[in-house]
Amino acid sequence: MKLFLSFSVLFFFATLTKAQPSLNISYISDSTQIKNLADEVMIRSTAYKNLRTLCKEIGPRLSGSSNALRAVYAGKKMLEAAGADTVYLQPCIVPHWVRGAKEEGYILINGTKEKIKLTSLGNSEGTNGKLINADVVEIKKMEDISRVNVKGKVVLINIEMNPTYIKTFRAYGESGVGRRAGPSLAAEYGAVAVMVRSLASNEDDHPHTGATVYNDSFPKIPAVAISTQMANKISSVLQSGKTVKAMIKSNCKMIGTANSFNVIGEIRGAKFPAQIITVGGHLDSWDLAEGAHDDGTGVVQSIEIIRSIKAQGIKPLRTIRAVLFMNEENGGGGSKAYLQNAKQKKEQHIFALESDAGGFTPRGFNLDMSLEKEQKVKEWAPLFYQYGVYDFKEKGSGSDVGPLKEIGTSLAGLQTDSQRYFDLHHAETDVFEAVSKRELDLGAMNMAALIWLVSEYGL
Ligand SMILES: [Zn+2]
Fold it and tell me: 344 C-alpha to center of ligand 1: Å?
């Protein structure tokens, strides 16, 4: 019996070693440290409570608005409560776009008028409170705009998100061209306004906003989003040979720029303080809802990294900075200021991680760095498997940390289960209640583990 036991113990260790070639003393101690961090987050995280504050006490946080400023001060307080060594505001300049009085929209089919929901695209110009009234013409691909007569018409840009892409961000990026570049392209061919099919993967009656980018060479025509259901309805009426008229009234406009801030909380590195690791999300949101998944979750997860590392009494070797970026949605003013400051101060930014893919179950980390560094991160991958994170194959990071590439920073982005993200992204349904506390904490926990590994071993 005794002999049998020893054999089975030996056999157990042999299989363990075989299954896990990197099993060694440091693997075991790293794994223990990560387990401690994981327990800290899963038991005592304040991310969900902070998210409630951002969503329910402050609410929508459009850049330049008084709510965005309230969020700056709330974020500063949260970072102080998390125990950061220093917390400060970093000034930035943001475009100041306002929606004005709520939009009004109607369609006319065979003389029957129907009220429809619409929302102006961010950064777009409105109709100055006047009612635009014109026939609707549909395009399903951007190339079609030169093939149909859009002069004097309202163009329905009806590009569906490709349902065959399992990673939904790919579909968003591809179909997003209609929202971003569609209004100016339609203006080039003489259209009077644009209605864009919402960039949403579900079918419901909520229009989703998002930024558009005008080309200064053409008139800045009004641009609104309509729901996926309404886009399908108008499309089928047009295909049956009937005409559809649209009536649009909106009051949005760009009123210049505003002063705002990134909020930064830092734990100073114990051994290499000059080496900076950034972890962040964006504090601003669209004005239609509470910006819970986009990107309240990234903000409170980043704060949770500071809190959990401090609460565990860890003294990171390198400096860890949580950055709550301002103005990701319609200008990137915050990320520009962050890069500019880094360059001016000649800071050494070794790594930056962004969470801006919703607070859903984490699946992996997208990486954007040299092959050699990527290899180093991938060697850590087995440490994450038991926490549900296994995908280290995708390229990418996020638009707030992205500019740091210019100064050679290695970048990463939290990858989530994104199947439901575009159901609510930029729509009035992106509210606190749509976030799961466990999924949110699991994301924060995995981010804390990666940040800790880089702080310990560098990159
Ligand atoms: Zn976002």
Answer: 27
